[in-house]
Amino acid sequence: MAQALGAIALPLVAASLMPVLYRWLRWRLGLAAVAAAAATLVLVVLTPDISLVTPWVPQLGIDLSIHVDGWGRLFALLIAGIGTLVTLYSIPYLGSREDLGKFYAYLLFFMGAMLGVVYAGNLVLMYVFWELTSISSFLLIGFWNTRDDAQYGALKAIFITVSGGLAMLGGLVILGAVGGTLELSALLANRAALLEHPLTTAALVLMLIGAFTKSAQVPFHIWLPDAMAAPTPVSAYLHSATMVKAGLYLIGRLWPIFHAHPLWVPAVATVGMATMVVGSFLAVQKTDLKAVLALSTVSQLGLIMWLFGLGTPEGAQAAAFHLFNHSTFKALLFMVVGVVDHQTGTREIPLLSGLRRAMPVSAALAAVGAASMAGVPLFSGFLSKEMFLTAVSHSPLGLAGAVVATVASVLTTLYCLVLGHKIWFGEPHGTPEVPEEGTRTILAPPLILAAIIVLVGVFPGPAEVWIVNPAVSAVLQGPADLPHIALWHGFTPAVLMTALALGGGLVAYRALPAVLAAFQRVTPQRFHLNALFDFLWWKDQAVEKAARRITNRQMTGFLRDYFVYSLGGLILLFFGTMLAKGAGIPQLTLSRVGAWELLLVAVIAVGAVFTARATTRLAAVAAISLVGLPLSVLFALLRAPDLALTQVVVETITTVLLLLVFPHMRQITVYPRGGVKRYLNLLVATGVGALGTVVTLLANGARLFPPSVAEWYLRNSHELGGGDNVVNVILVDFRGFDTMGEITVLTVAGLAVYMLIRLRKQQQAGGGKG
Amino acid sequence: MVRARIEQNPIVRVVVHTALYGLKLLAIWILLRGHHEPGGGFIAGLLIAAVIAMQGVAFGTDAAQAIFPVPPQYLLGGGLLISFSTVLGPALLGGAFMEHSQGVIRLPLFGDVFWSTAVLFDIGVFLVVVGTMKTVLLTIAADPVRGRPAGTGEAADGRKKEVS
Questions:
Q1: Which of A253, A439, A490, A714 is deepest in the core (most CB within 10 A)?
Q2: Can you give the pLDDT at residue A706?
């Protein structure tokens, strides 16, 4: 338990210290970040399987609960393990010129948030961490925040992922309402009953939208290529190895509940399949190395999604294993591309050639990563890719699915050859900087990943036993007869498909220019999803324009109009509810009204009429004092000295304030007689008066808390509150929580006035208009 | 300007000057007695605000600044801090959220003095009210009037504001 909590808390605490430590450590800050990440990795390794609930908001079923099982651990290992390597890699990559305090703070913040997602045992808690990963991703994509592409990429990513996150929240709430709990373990235990509820379909659809946006599935994949504006370590970490896998994490969590749902296979498998094909099709056409990697990530995420969509244990096992392999080889490839970019000054494929002579180690590393991604035997990707092909050929789609998978794999082989062969072989030609091998520190992290890829590829046993199968049994929620992961299963259809994919890729690579030209002809150039996004939120800003039009229509600049909106709404709601519920005024218990009270009320009424009829502001202020001061006398008569005192003081200060403000305002606009606005305002004013009267009478007649709240306060004020002034005891004790909120609001209001006026002064000083 | 004329009025100045100390004492008295008799932090804060407003009218904003000579942001922050700590403190010490405690302490000169953490909470409320009112009053008073002099009703405000 302590390990799991520590693994979430340690990176978050370390993140908050980073900007402070940066002042002392300067470029050495990276070492501190590596230490924090490595310590987190140790904690993750030590975390046992647990399920633990600490009450947080028990009334709503929201608790700080931790649920660790094999599925969460697979992710936690990737998050902490690759996180450590990426942090190490970023030290030489970023050098000492960047704002490192900010960078490592965001990176560790992400690590803690992501661990929170995979360890959270309560759906709402998971949602909170889920959105924190979106926020840290936004901050990291926009790390070079003065660049246009960084701003665009960051905003696009947060628009799409947070919209999906909101959909997911809706799904979680429905699921919680249907299942009667928000606890993951309780929902999983109760899964058979859940599936029968009619609302489950809505919950499933909403949560799938959340998972698809986060994991960049078609048609939400468009944010991921633009997220490549982030520094390369971030791309390696968030946008290939971990954060984009959160959608798959959710899918794996939902698998036991929903895999038997009639919508599961069509929705998840179709989207996964489409994403795999579209991603690999687009990846081949890109000339920027990072764009190729981003779209290949889209494609590979689609592959894993498809596997989950099959709804079979075999598919889930292949998905878990490929997820692990993809994180390692894709992080490796990103790191190598980062080195290439760093050493040559460009990522454009046409400019890069023959780099293996200058950078032999990088070339070997890229070859390992590309071979694993393409599924070449003896590399880890081969095993999981073959499991993928086997699982797909067993699916109901049968031959058609196998053909689609093979075609997408041919395209995968093609871009793997570009990444692993094209830029390294051939004749070197000029790059912006003369290429030179990267330093040992920058090559060490990818080297470790390459070692893991080869080790797992040759001896898959340990990974299968310790990582993959515990994860799969957590997804399946029970032991299952899983196929053994082995290099050779005999002549299966998968062997043929692998051979076709590799061979087809090689043939296409031979004729690369012709293939690309053909692809370009069939790719839509004008009407695509990015154009739609730009139309709505970026270049044409259709959404923003529409919002501004509505706002300008409604915001007239007249306080009176705003009162009409809000008070008119209140009146409609109140009297509407009364009419709908058929409520009436109950039996009243009234005391006798004396002559003094009548006199005061008469004065107040006169004051009110004069205020409404005043044509200058000064007259209005004088008249309104005629309402306020007699009111305080009335309070005193009714034996409420606190209220009377407050009323007098408030009256005084209001008058002073109004006098201070008047010089800034123009004369009262008097609406013409007989105008619509005049009657509307009169109607609203009368309505508010009626509302106040009815509420008072209702409060007098209501006996909801027998014998009465007031009596309870009077009796218990001394004993429970320790004070004799009941009004004050209510303020500071019985209803003290309200007071706490009120003084916070008061503070915010005061600061807002200060800021608004100061802002106006600055604008005036700057020669702008107010 | 109206304000300039009032500031030169000797009667206003003398009255305000005389009333000042009494009002301040009254505010503190009302603040501390609030738990048992009419009064409390909110009223006391408003009284100080009234004092600040009067001082500002009679002697100008600089003199008003000197009434509670702490920058308003410290009043706001400090007030919230005191109030919140009496709310969260008991919870952290193992009690209930916002559980107040009280008692009587014997002081050398004053005799038996009643104390309560609720009064501490009220002092926080008092500081926040003073801070807010001081901020609002002084920023508005210090804001130069645009356009023509006041009173002609032709100041340039009140135009339709466009959201941009």
A1: A253
A2: 63
**pTM as predicted:** 0.73
Is there a single domain that holds both residue A208 and residue A285? no
Dist CA A487 CA A500 (whole Å): 18
Residues A71, A73, A78: CA angle, nearest 5 degrees: 110
Distance of CA B28 to the CA centre of its chain: 11
Supply angle C-alpha A267, A219, A289, rounded to 5.
125
Per-residue buried b or exposed e for A403-426, using 16+ beta carbons within 10 Å of the residue's own CB: ebbbbbbbbbbbbbbbbbbbbbee
Q: Are strands A62-68 and B102-107 parallel, antiparallel or unpaired?
A: unpaired
pLDDT of residue B149 exceeding 50: no
Domain of B101? Answer: 2-142
Joined tokens for residue A592: 């006798």
The phi-psi region of residue A640 (left if phi > 0; otherwise alpha if psi is between -120 and 50; otherwise beta) is beta
Which pLDDT does position A53 carry in this prediction?
A: 86
Residue B45 in any domain: the answer is yes
Give domain status of residue A703, yes or no. Answer: yes
| Length of chain A in terms of residues written | 770
Q: Are residues A126 and A101 in the same domain?
A: yes
Bin A526: left if φ > 0, else alpha if -120 < ψ < 50, else beta: alpha
**What is this model's ipTM?**
0.79
Q: Are the beta carbons of A7 and A115 closer than 8 angstroms?
A: yes
Kindly write down the DSSP assignment for every residue of A145-171, as one continuous string: TTSHHHHHHHHHHHHHHHHHHHHHHHH
From B43, B125, B157, residue closest to A743, measured CB to CB: B125
For A476-509, what is each residue's pLDDT tens digit? 987 777 888 888 877 888 889 999 999 999 999 9
**B11 contacts: CB under 8 Å, gap ≥ 6:** none
pLDDT in tens, B43-59: 899 999 888 888 887 88
Give the domain range for residue A9: 1-261
pLDDT band at B3 (very low <50, low <70, confident <90, very high): low
Two structure tokens written together for A34: 């590596």
Place of tokens 């709402």: A124
**Do A455 and A308 share a structural domain?**
yes
pLDDT on residue A739:
87
Number of domains in chain A: 5
Which residue has better confidence, A346 or B101? A346
Answer whether A146 touches B (CB < 8 Å): no
If one counts the domains in chain B, the total is: 1
Chain B neighbors of A552, CB-CB under 8 A: 162-163
Q: Any chain B CB within 8 A of the CB of A719?
A: no
Question: CB-based contact (8 Å) between A145 and chain B?
Answer: no
Helix H or strand E encompassing A475: helix A469-476
Task: Examine residue A688 and state whether it is found in any structural domain, yes or no.
Answer: yes
Residue at B151 is within a domain: no
Statement to judge: residues A18 and A72 lie in one domain = yes
Span B118-146, mean pLDDT? Answer: 85
Residues of B in contact with A744 (CB under 8 A): 80
In a domain, A111, yes or no: yes
Indicate the burial class of A701 (C-beta count within 10 angstroms; 0-12, 13-18, 19 or more): middle
Residues in chain A predicted with pLDDT less than 50, given as ranges, are 768-770
